[in-house]
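Lecture 7 notes: from sequence to structure.
We start with the chain below.
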Amino acid sequence: MNEPTLKCCVAALAGKQAALNRRFAYYDGTALLPVITERLREVYHQFNVVGAENWSAVVVDSMTDRITLRGLHGPDDATTALLAAAWSSTDMVLETADAHEAALIGGEAYLIAWRDGDGPVECYYNDARSCHVFYDTARPNVPTLACKWWDDEEARYLKIYTAEAIATYRAVRRSFDTERADASRFLPVDAPEPNPFGVIPVFHLRPRRRPISELDSIISIQDAINILLANMLVTAEFNAAPMKYIISNAAGIEDLVSAPNRVWTIPSGDALGGTGNTTQVGQFGAADLGNYLSAVEQYINALSSITRTPKHYFQLGQNAPSGEALRVMDGPLVKKCRDRMDRFTPTYRALGAFLCQLQGVLVDPMTIRADWANPETEQPLQQAQETTARAQAMVAKRQTGMSRKQGLRELGYTDDQITTMDSEETADPHARNMQQVIDLVEAQLLSRETGMALAGIDDPTAEAQRIQAEQEASASLGGQVINAFNSGQ
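Predicted structure tokens for the same chain:
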């Protein structure tokens, strides 16, 4: 690697430390209280306060709870088995969960995969503060260079990756400053090693092409909430021990102490400067704590709107929604999560193809499928009703010429699952007969309801139920008449 490349890597890594540290501090709830006036600096001298209500974490966690990658699937069973083995051996469930969280907090995260010789396949999540990827300016989705640094007790190491070679450098720790890194301090550990795979093994997860955090738009709101809460705590302390005052020229009042169960003895009737005024005792009133809580609530509402996080995440104890209302309120958040999942998918396709390559199999990344969990709130009863409605719609479509297999595809079944069901039905005569009965009943019901619809009946199902009820009533009445006639009544 040449010297300009080394300088570029060190500058890129050092240059993003401050912004990323700030974002993670807000997520962790360790950001220091910002003081906006000099007067408050005097009031809060040696008063170290952090965010008492860390809503920044709620914004991120509400998304990470819904963004779950369950695995990777290949174009065939053999490739899928390779991916499953690599997924299991590298604990990718944990690595991807950490990567998603870091990508939402810092605006980017990294996964690095490798295999040394015949050793096991390895894949680890890496913090954005320790990695960086450079892209071709003409083709901004094509990586050209990647780098990573890490520390031990004595030195900081820097590894630079290209598709052709991998080089490692070392800088003595005592001479290294993270914020003002000097590339000249890094010396090569050994000669660059050729990259046997021809692929940069650093995979970049980014919700946006620019590294934008989910917290960037709400940090100022979190600061305002923290300031209000700090002021409320100071006011509450003042309410617990109100400041008292005495207007008097009597001797010894400077020794009076305000404390519970303390009784003051103050001379009375003393004149103040010959004016005839007597001793006055009082206390300063405190601000209403409700004013702070109202302001905090307003900021939380703004935070909810800006981040599209449903309000019930911030006010769980107040009229928690359920059923369809919950799904509607979660809609914007679900859409945002789906967007992030779609943006992560190309990276996971490339990672899946590389994991196969590490095991000696070349796979087209476009044939890799990422298996994401459904980000919507699970409502078992509603899901059952929706499944029934979709199945009924599929039955109606089949009457218009749709094949059974296409109908099952639209219901969410894969081709492999459809093939398995067909083979099971062929092997089981009872299942085949039952399917024929089901098809016949469906056709009869559909033909009756279709005829009613053509006749202009708005609700064919309700009309069919009404007709059936009338037929049952008529049959019952006919039976009564016959019985009465037979009995001679």
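Points to note: The two ends are 111 Å apart (CA to CA). The chain has 14 helices and 13 strands.
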